[in-house]
Amino acid sequence: MSFFGGSSASSTDASGLTPEQRKQQIMQQVRTELALANAQELINKIGDNCFTKCITKPSTKLDSSEETCLAKCMDRYMDAWNIVSRAYVTRIQREVPNDMTGL
Q1: Could you give the number of structural domains in the chain?
Q2: 0.70 surpassed by pTM
Q3: Within 10 Å of residue 55's Cβ, how many Cβ atoms?
């Protein structure tokens, strides 16, 4: 029995998960929430930056040059975001040991 009244690390909680399974489940939920937050940030930044760059005279319709500019701006922004994201993930994977059982 642990100090807080629970049983050993191999026991399960009310959902039938072991502490390690529960930890993995929580970590996956955090990763999912971070991915969603990153996607929302990307969309907001694309909207802000590309609108500022491409829409010089706001009106009810986009002209063809504005449409072209927006498409190219969004493509470039997505490409840059993907490059930075891959580099970041690679760096994190190198720096964080695969087995974090000591946590």
Answers
A1: 1
A2: no
A3: 14
Distance CA 71, CA 77 (A): 10
| pLDDT attached to residue 10 | 55
Q: In this structure, are residues 1 and 7 in contact, taking their beta carbons and an 8 Å threshold?
A: yes
Task: Return the higher-pLDDT residue of 98 and 20.
Answer: 20
Per-chain mean pLDDT for the chain: 83
Please report whether residue 102 resides in a domain. no
Q: Which domain holds residue 66?
A: 20-95
Name the residue type at position 47.
G
> Three-state SS across the chain?
CCCCCCCCCCCCCCCCCCHHHHHHHHHHHHHHHHHHHHHHHHHHHHHHHHHHHHCCCCCCCCCHHHHHHHHHHHHHHHHHHHHHHHHHHHHHHHHCCCCCCCC
